[in-house]
Amino acid sequence: MKKVFIVLGFITAILATILAVTPLSNLAIIPIIVAFLCGLMILFISKKQNTKTKTIQYIFLLVIISLALTIYKGVFNTTELGDTEQLEQRAEENLEDSKEILEDLEIDEDL
C-alpha cells in the first residue's frame, strides 16, 4: 500500500511541477493537493512501521516548488486586455476577407 502512495505521490508531484511552469498553472492545484495527501499518507504509514524514507521529503519538496510557482504566477501575471474596438474591427475585417475568399472560389458542379 505504501508503494502505491509513493508512486501516486511522485507522479502527481511531477505533474504539478510541470503544470506550474506552463501557462496552465491554475490547473496545478489539483495535482498539488493529491501529491500532498499522498505524502501525508506515506508519512502516517512510515510512522506506524517505524521506517524512514527520503521519498516523503522529495514529494513535499516538489509540492512546495509547484505551489510557490503557482502562487507566484497567480499574483504577478496579469492579463492585459487590448482595445476592444480594435479587436472588433479586426474580426469584421477577417469576416469580410473570408467572404471575399469564398466568393472568389470557383466550384465545379460537374462532380
TrEMBL record:
Provide the alphabetized UniProt keywords: Coiled coil, Membrane, Transmembrane, Transmembrane helix
User: Keyword Transmembrane helix, does the record have it?
Assistant: yes
TM spans (from-to)? 30-46, 58-76
Q: Which residue windows are coiled coil?
A: 81-108
This chain belongs to the protein called: FUSC family protein
